[in-house]
Description:
Helix content is 34%, strand content 20%. By secondary structure, it is α/β, with parallel strands linked by helices. Strands 2-3-5-4-1-7-6-8-9-10-11-12 form a 12-stranded mixed sheet, sandwiched between helices. Strand 4 and strand 5 (49-52) form a beta hairpin. Helix 3 (122-153) crosses helix 4. The longest helix is centred in the middle third of the chain and has 32 residues, at 122-153.
Amino acid sequence: MYFITNYAITQTKRWSPTRNTPERSITLHPRDREPGASVFFCRRDGDGDYKEIGSKAFFQLMKGPADEEILLYIHGFNNTPEGDVFPRAEALQRLCDSGLGGHNKSITVISLMWPCDDDLGIIKDYWDDQDSSDQSAFGFARVLGKFMDWRQRNTGDDACYRPINILAHSMGNRVLRLTLSRWVTYQGRLPALFRNVFMVAADIVNESLERGKSGYPITQSSRNVVVYYANDDLAMTASKVANVRNKVASRRLGHTGPEDMDQVSANVFAIDCDEVNNVYDSPKGHSYFLGAAGTAGAPGAVFDHILQTLITGRPRVVGESRRLVIGDGTA
């Protein structure tokens, strides 16, 4: 499994932590959770067995035909690499592989992994991870720039035709929003890079996708932006309370969906997951994008909706409202 990270790494003295040496073994620092200035393009060969392969080799792996899609996974807060990020990425890959039977298509899951805290105290972790997600946006904006430069230099037989999709969960949507916002600030208008952006339990304010707001570039970068939300998501309720500290009292996108569908672009779709979020993730109702038994279980209705959108290129919604209430057997 491949991943991109700005975690601090530890090395033996003969290596520099910022030196790009293909196939060198790396170890994620066990205590340093400060987002690094360097970004590493890596392969995971097993539990704690990581190799840095470098950006050139990484982008070469992205080359392929249009029926071989990429799904970038950006995890949420308080997630550790081996405890949360990689198991969920592996579950996404397994569910994609099993769900694509009979379809002339493949999907490769790649994790964008940013440093999370694991101190005692969930509220302290939340504030620390907010800072980490904000700082991580600079590094991932550099990744975006590297990819665009590489794609412009490689045309014809060397071009990358693989569609790129993003699944961002919880605070991972904050990373996504700020990454694209940084790009627009320093590079100007953002090109349409992605086929689908899936925003699951998004921990950003529910007006973020409106024109002129900080999340608007997300809608400009993708063909479809699909927002999955649940009113009884306990993590979203706690997030609203925690953000009062920063004088942000607005409801969260993952709690209500977009504040006003008339104020967001026509490519934004809202999927109400109240019927299933606690079935798949009890009692918090927050990590509901896989299935009833989490990383070990069968696909749930939310994942099925995501997969069908990946297969068809169009999210299933009801009429011109661009909304859908999702439940077991409805996707």
